[in-house]
Amino acid sequence: MSGEASQAEDKVDVSDRFLALYDSALPYVYGYLLARCGRAGLAEELTADTMLAAVVMLGRRQPEQLSTAWLIGIARHKLVDYWRRLGREERGLRSLAFEHADEVEDPWDVHLDTLRARETLERLAPQHRVVLTLRYLDDLPVGEVADILDRTLHATEALLVRAKAAFRRAYSGQEDISDA
Q1: DSSP, res 150
Q2: Residue 78: which residues within 8 A CB-CB, separation 6 or more?
Q3: Cα–Cα 20 to 30 A to 86, which of 13, 26, 95, 159?
């Protein structure tokens, strides 16, 4: 019986620690998502999904450390899942054209207006939005972006080239920004 009592105490302890973490981490998780998706309603929905996923994960096994960083990691995956889902829906509505970039180097060193850049990013195809967000906003190396997106390194590099080209066109005011 002492083993069962110990497990029950551990579950109560984890629950109490998670509730305390929830209260302190909620604004950070929401802020992280809002900064990347730009829409309060979507950020709220993804924050709720993040917290629900955390509770489900705690029911399966206890993570090494309950922390805000752990929750933000879950939030990052929820955001990626959302963009993937959005991309699948858009592909179902229209076929996407492929663009082959001739340039390997990226000499585009200009000062970007933050608000305009965010609006431009929101207009991009979801697969472009997610790869640019993970690489440049989250500052992840290309290899880690490839792992998160479940793509090869080469495919992720090619996607980054296409996404940057689409961003440049959209930022410069050209119309066609939705390619694969």
Answers
A1: T
A2: 33, 46, 49, 50, 53
A3: 26
Inside any domain, residue 90: no
Whole-number pLDDT of residue 12: 66
What is the C-alpha separation between 141 and 107, in angstroms, rounded? Answer: 19
Which domain covers residue 72, as residue numbers? 2-78
At CA 93, angle to CA 173 and CA 46, rounded to 5?
Answer: 80
Half-sphere exposure of 153 (CA within 13 A, CB side): 4
Has residue 1 got a pLDDT over 90?
Answer: no
Of 55, 52, 77, give the one whose Cα is nearest residue 66.
Answer: 55
Type of residue numbered 117 = A
CATH number at 162 reads 1.10.10.10
Structure confidence by residue, pLDDT tens digits, 135-147: 988 889 999 999 9
Among candidate residues 78, 111, 143, the one where a domain is terminated: 78
